[in-house]
Amino acid sequence: MKVKAAVAYSAGKPLSIEMVDLAGPQAGEVLVEIKATGVCHTDAYTLSGADPEGLFPAILGHEGAGIVAEIGAGVTSVKVGDRVIPLYIPECRNCEYCLSRKTNLCQAIRLTQGQGVMPDGTSRFSIDGQKIHHYMGTSTFANYTVLPEIAVAKIRDDAPFDKVCLIGCGVTTGIGAVINTAKVEPGSNVVVFGLGGVGLNVIQAARLVGANMIVGVDLNSEKRQMAEKFGMTHFVNPSEIEGDLVAYLVDLTKGGADYTFECIGNINVMRQALECCHKGWGVSVIVGVAGAGQEISTRPFQLVTGRVWKGTAFGGAKGRTDVPKIVDWYMDGKINIDSLVSQVMPIEQINQAFDAMHKGEVIRTVLTF
Ligand code: APR
Ligand code: ZN
């Protein structure tokens, strides 16, 4: 079939809207009509050429929602008409990783996903007979995409696509970091570095679990108002305080934070986030994605004296199990997604959506088809 897609032909070039060929789902795969997709920093990172694993040409996009249009042989967990969210971390419930119950990093299709192809080693996308790579196993910048069954989360039938698509990445990453990875307890003091789409979700989850202080740190004071709406209790702009930021935050939290979250991807901030944790028990979670090859550092004494450094991918969420629950939380009014959607535009304006993200003008742009 012919589908409409934003094709990334090469690094650093604008995306091009094309009609491309999409082959139908093979055994164990599903065809999904994508109804809405967010634009996230990871897409921009790969498009920029800075991602050493980036493959071109490719159809990017990993924060989508849609409807199952066709199922391949042997597919049992979803049927035509089901609403789904594509998962860039699948959940096979069968591999060593899934069975460990200690991680969400299912490895069932890891190798082929990284190679930009389906589990059988081939791509479903092509243009004029030339192969186009899949991206993160999702390729949501197309109005139809093919996914392995284990990489779709079935969600309820009344969930609005242009909101719940953000659960495919940013919302789950932030909320899951608090609930699954850090397991923040009621009464905890929390510091969140970076008040973008991810940081705001950390904040609303911290409020949800009953945190005491929720301190937001951002160089851009314009982020304050929105963060307060999500539950931030104290705001710190590092450029406006005198002296050392770590000492300031330790003082503010009366001895250090119980939990901190780095939601920027800056290795210097990662160090600050660890070091403003409380001696003896403070836990710092790296959520932001640093550039390839970058390294973090601190004095080992920080860990010897009880601080813990962790990281999280997709908020530690097991996609098929946890994503439907987060959709329910949204539908029940427990979490706010509406305020994260700064603008909705047709896929044809995707390059403007990237520009707006680079300028820091938006929390998220949602594209529709
Ligand atoms: N100190 C404090 N705040 C900073 C700093 C800094 N050194 N550098 C940037 N910021 C703030 C920005 O002002 C912005 O508000 O961090 C925020 C980052 O937000 P976004 O750019 O909207 O990013 P977001 O979508 O939240 O993603 C954050 O998570 O998924 C990853 O790749 C993504 O690494 C990125 C991170
Ligand atoms: Zn698995």
Automatic annotation (TrEMBL):
Residue ranges of domain Enoyl reductase (ER) in the record: 12-367
Transmembrane segments: none
GO molecular function: alcohol dehydrogenase (NAD+) activity; S-(hydroxymethyl)glutathione dehydrogenase (NAD+) activity; S-(hydroxymethyl)glutathione dehydrogenase (NADP+) activity; S-nitrosoglutathione reductase (NADH) activity; zinc ion binding
UniProt-listed GO biological process terms: formaldehyde catabolic process
Superkingdom: Bacteria
Reaction catalysed by this enzyme: S-(hydroxymethyl)glutathione + NAD(+) = S-formylglutathione + NADH + H(+); a primary alcohol + NAD(+) = an aldehyde + NADH + H(+); S-nitrosoglutathione + NADH + H(+) = S-(hydroxysulfenamide)glutathione + NAD(+); S-(hydroxymethyl)glutathione + NADP(+) = S-formylglutathione + NADPH + H(+)
Alphabetized UniProt keyword annotations: Metal-binding, NAD, Oxidoreductase, Zinc
Cofactor: Zn(2+)
EC assignment: 1.1.1.284
GO cellular component: cytosol
Family: Belongs to the zinc-containing alcohol dehydrogenase family. Class-III subfamily.
Primary role: Has high formaldehyde dehydrogenase activity in the presence of glutathione and catalyzes the oxidation of normal alcohols in a reaction that is not GSH-dependent. In addition, hemithiolacetals other than those formed from GSH, including omega-thiol fatty acids, also are substrates. Also acts as a S-nitroso-glutathione reductase by catalyzing the NADH-dependent reduction of S-nitrosoglutathione.
Listed PANTHER family: ALCOHOL DEHYDROGENASE, ALCOHOL DEHYDROGENASE CLASS-3
NCBIfam families: adh_III_F_hyde (TIGR02818)
Name recorded for this polypeptide: S-(hydroxymethyl)glutathione dehydrogenase
